[in-house]
């Protein structure tokens, strides 16, 4: 029989990139279960949407189109009053990159409605006359993008992200984001500061009147007006390609990729019980990889029961290392993580129905704040069978913080010139992105295979 030390050495590590499926070697005195289900069977059974189609990789994607949406409201005019401001330079840079990348370009102007301008010239977009719109409605814009664009197209929105009072319903914004991400789940927000000379129309409490004059030379953060670029794509690969081709070295001051997991974690690692306890699980050896679509980061760990069957549930602890300190991430508390677990069993070559499992899982940060531990309690497998669990660890409702820089860029009052270097209610806009996008992305996803002999 293997020593506990050897079990410790053979800790159950799985590569996130490869998604290796593991199963356990037998231990003297205990009968091994039948061979474990292979990776393809597992994925096809519990997550058929992620299984690769044999000819999928060879399929050529249609030519992507770039759809540029420029905020044409009157409060944007000050960005182009005295070129070359950062806004002027960034927009020129972007249009040049689109033309050299040989993308088809469609330009739209939006404020209280969305207007298709075809392939209009840079001179037109950078003219003060372009910016004469009234109210800005982002729910209207996002509904238009979700409805009118193909999944492979890339949408780029340029705006100061100030919602007009009568169109700034936060619930409508969250709903519009949710509809948008059904077709385009990959979204990146880039934040810039620019010189601004002109009129700003107040959307909040009118302290000195309905509009104020801003004269900001852009030399310091306090003397610059924020504007933003939203990059919206149908996939993570599409977003990365568009960013690399269109926005290299564009010089954004800050960024937030809402479609990335809120907490970056390394591969799951099995933590054996304390040395005074009877090991429940034996060692393992690799079998096959999970056939998953590109960009899906999933791993599978397989365990063979070696202790005698008892009434108590089988307990299992995994540890995942955080990138940096766990507590410094966007996650507020691990206790509020939500576990989505589905189960199917294989016995005699036949699968049981896939059913959701009431979660008895718990999550905690380790004492050194560098690891997230996950504690599971599962029923014991039946004799000569494999229980397969698909686990998605979700952030939980209202359990994510906005990036720290957002606090320095947002304001709840926009009625005085001294606050012109901040964006009115930017925090609510970013919160809408988090609630509708990032909260729906698992911070970890793995399969657990529990096997038992006779």
Structure description:
With 454 residues, the chain is an alpha+beta fold. The protein has two domains: 4-53 and 263-397 and 442-452, no CATH class; 65-260, no CATH class. 19% of the residues lie in helices and 30% in strands. It contains nine helices and 23 strands. The strands form six sheets. It has a seven-stranded mixed beta sheet with strand order 4-3-2-5-9-6-10. Strands 13, 15, 16, 17, 20 and 23 form a six-stranded mixed beta sheet that branches. Strand 3 and strand 4 (114-118) form a beta hairpin. Helix 5 (138-148) packs parallel to helix 6 and helix 6 packs across helix 9. The longest helix is centred in the first third of the chain and has 15 residues, at 86-100. The chain is elongated, with a radius of gyration of 26 Å.
Number of domains: 2
What is the makeup of the main sheet? 7 strands, mixed
Question: Roughly what is the average pLDDT, rounded to an integer?
Answer: 80
Overall 3D shape: elongated
Strand content range: 25-35%
Rg computed from alpha carbons, rounded to a whole number of angstroms: 26 Å
Number of strands: 23
Distance between the termini: 18 Å
- Assembly type of the chains comes to single chain
Low-confidence stretches: 1-28, 52-59, 275-280, 282-297
């Amino acid at each position: 029989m293997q020593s506990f030390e050897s079990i410790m050495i053979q800790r159950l590590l799985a590569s996130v990139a490869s998604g290796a499926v593991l199963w356990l070697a037998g231990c003297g005195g205990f009968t091994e279960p039948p061979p474990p289900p292979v990776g393809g069977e597992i994925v096809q059974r519990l997550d058929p949407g992620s299984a690769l189609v044999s000819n999928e990789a060879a399929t050529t994607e249609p030519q992507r189109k770039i759809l540029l949406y420029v905020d044409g409201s009157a409060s944007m005019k000050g960005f182009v009053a005295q070129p070359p401001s950062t806004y002027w330079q960034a927009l020129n840079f972007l249009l040049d990159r689109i033309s050299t990348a040989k993308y088809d370009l469609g330009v739209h102007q939006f404020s209280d409605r969305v207007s298709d301008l075809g392939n209009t010239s840079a001179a037109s977009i950078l003219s003060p006359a372009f910016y004469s719109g009234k109210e800005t409605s982002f729910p209207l814009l996002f509904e238009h993008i979700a409805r009118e664009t193909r999944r492979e197209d890339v949408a780029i929105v340029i705006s100061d992200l100030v919602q007009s009072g009568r169109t700034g319903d936060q619930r409508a914004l969250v709903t519009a984001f949710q509809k948008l991400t059904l077709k385009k789940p990959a979204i990146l927000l880039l934040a810039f500061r620019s010189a601004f000379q002109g009129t700003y129309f107040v959307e909040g409490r009118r302290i000195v009147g309905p509009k104020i004059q801003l004269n900001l030379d852009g030399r310091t953060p306090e003397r610059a007006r924020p504007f933003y670029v939203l990059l919206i794509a149908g996939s993570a690969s599409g977003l990365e390609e568009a960013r690399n081709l269109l926005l290299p070295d564009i010089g954004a001051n800050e960024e937030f990729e809402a479609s990335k997991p809120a907490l970056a974690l390394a591969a799951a690692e099995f933590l054996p019980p304390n040395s005074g306890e009877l090991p429940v699980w034996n060692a393992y050896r690799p079998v096959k990889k999970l056939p998953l679509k590109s960009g899906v980061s999933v791993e599978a760990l397989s365990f063979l029961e070696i202790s005698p069957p008892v009434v108590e549930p089988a307990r299992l602890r995994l540890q995942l290392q955080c990138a940096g300190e766990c507590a410094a991430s966007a996650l507020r508390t691990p206790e509020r993580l939500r576990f989505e677990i589905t189960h199917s069993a294989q016995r005699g070559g036949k699968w049981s129905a896939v059913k959701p499992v009431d979660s008895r899982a718990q999550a905690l940060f380790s004492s050194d704040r560098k690891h997230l531990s996950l504690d599971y309690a599962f029923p014991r497998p039946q004799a000569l069978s494999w229980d397969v669990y698909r686990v998605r660890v979700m952030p939980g409702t209202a359990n994510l913080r906005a990036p720290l820089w957002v606090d320095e860029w947002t304001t709840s009052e926009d009625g005085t010139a001294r606050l012109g270097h901040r964006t009115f209610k930017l925090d609510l806009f970013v919160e809408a992105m988090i609630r509708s996008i990032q909260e729906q992305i698992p911070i970890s996803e793995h399969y657990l295979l529990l096997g038992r002999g006779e």
